[in-house]
Amino acid sequence: MDLKNFIYKRDEDIYINKELLNVEYYDSSENYLLDVFNNAEDNPIYPLKFYRYIRDWPSRYHLDYKRLNLIEAFRDIINGGKVLELGAGTGILTGLLSFYNKSVDAIEGNLKRALIIRKRLKTVNNCRVFVDDIYKTDFPKNEYDFVTIVGVLEYIPFYYSDFSTTSIENVTLNFLKKVSETLKEKGILLLAIENKFGAKYFSGCNEDHNGKLFSGILGYPFRSPITFSRNELFMLLKKAGFVNIQFYHLFPDYKLPKLFIRECEEFYEISPSGLWRGFFEEYAGERKYFFSDSLFVENIIKSRMLSYFSNSFVILASKTPEVNLKTKWIIKKFYNDYPHNPKNHHSIEIVKDDDRRELNKYYVKREPLYIADAIWEFSDNIYMYKLNPRMNFIKGESLYIKILKAFSSENLDNVIYLLNLIKNTLIDKFGIKGFDHEGYPISNYPIDYTAWNLLEDERGDIIFIDNKWITLKALPCDFIVFRTLLYILMEELVILKDKRNATIKDLIIDIMKRIFSSYNYNRLLYNINLEADFQAFATGEIKENILSRLKDAIFLALSSVKVEDELVRVRNELDAERQAKVELQTKLTQVEDELVRVRNELDAERQAKVELQTKLTQVEDELVRVRNELDAERQA
Description:
Elements: E1 6-9, E2 14-17, H1 30-39, H2 57-63, H3 69-72, E3 82-86, H4 94-100, E4 103-108, H5 111-120, E5 127-131, E6 144-150, H6 156-160, H7 165-182, E7 183-194, H8 199-203, H9 230-239, E8 244-251, E9 259-262, H10 265-270, H11 293-302, H12 306-309, E10 312-318, E11 329-335, E12 346-352, E13 362-368, E14 377-379, E15 383-386, E16 390-392, E17 397-398, H13 399-408, H14 412-430, E18 434-435, E19 441-443, E20 454-456, E21 462-464, E22 469-471, E23 475-476, H15 477-491, H16 504-513, H17 521-539, H18 543-555, H19 561-635
Parallel strand pairs: 2-5, 3-4, 3-6, 4-5, 6-7
Antiparallel strand pairs: 1-2, 7-10, 8-9, 8-10, 9-11, 11-12, 12-13, 13-16, 14-15, 15-22, 17-20, 18-19, 19-23, 20-21
């Protein structure tokens, strides 16, 4: 970066463009985050402790460590070079970029955010922070090995175009051309952005940037930050000078990514089942629930349409075909949700081994997240956590998906058949060592012998694919089946829309009684208690807190017309209050900035007044002197 255009503020350790007009982008969190980073410290690489300061979506966006999955996924490619980070925000990604690379130049248009970056990275020495308008910055030519643009491109047309189709393309293209020119010949661009045709926008999520349902799908009828489709992005990058372009597809999105899929033919060859569980989260408002997101994603993959309907893209692009933009993995998934114990944060990859024959040429690789100080194994008296570093990939249909389909079609008999299948294969594989105090079979059953970890292969065999949680003491068979039913009901409530007055409690007892004839309310409480024991081990949380959450979810009515209407009303009021708070906070920030500007002008006017007064005094003194000389001459 050419420093002659910048003023270095030594006390803040930031560089400010001499001619900058502050970019007016706020999300109401800046003042709060300044307080957080003034009064708290955490590891700048993987900041786990800051999670407790999350209070709303804006603070979560800047503090949630899952955002780092975006950089961690590509650590073998974006590594060891000189990085330009455009639109660095408050620096959540900057620390990890600095950790994996020689140096980082982070540019942020908002002064407060730049100050936050410097405070949160006070111990990071290979990062420079610049305050500048990234669209107007003169980037040096052929300077950087890597440029990252994360959640930024969608704002370029909003701030710099007249929102006509031609203007949107022109300003976006001009920006990308500048980025291309600042990269070295073999440099790499990492671009992360939502897909305007993302699956979540069809299934009920509002558009992320304007909060309107179907806004992007309909081509943004009103002025707003905008996202693009896969083909639009591909053509923009081609026109900007990038000839080597590799797409990656992310769920739930690039902001808090868990699932990464490399766009390639091999992905459809393995056609994995059950990749996504549950509903896509609506971060700042209330979403609709039109259908099961899990089944939608499953069908998109089966139809080979993932490239067009993934929720977000990461695109790696270079100016030469000689650069490798392909990760070793085809699929990478992160398991580091809060509140799971950081010791078991890990990733799982599906990789192709080109040296192996056709049979089993794909394998599953697991490893701890070393940036979280995660480990391979730990245990207590009941459970052990132990990662299996490598196993063969097995193709089949997830029992989770099969049960969801049965629920969606209101085929309860098929649900019970599949749960019985889990029960019977569990006993077949792991036997019966005895019976508990109520007569239920017990053995060292793996606690995660659940629908999401079970596949039915092409021969109809049930395959257990993830046994990282090992049971050291005997557990009852019904508890294992209960876990599948519990989490499917908790994660997929929309499929129970016909059970308007039911509770999860009622449904569990009703279904479990048809599998275990003596199952009752007291047995449900026993299963809940066992689940709380396990979750306390897995997360490190206090068991009583877990019990309270589980009971709240299980005993609360799924819906009733009266309660549903009241819930909508209260949520609308809450949204209105939150919006009013955001608007007030934004106004306050703007007024504070205006106050600073006016004070500076006042100080400047006062200084000018002092200088004028001094000059006036000097002129008056000179006038007296000249008059005295004149009088003396006249006297003479």
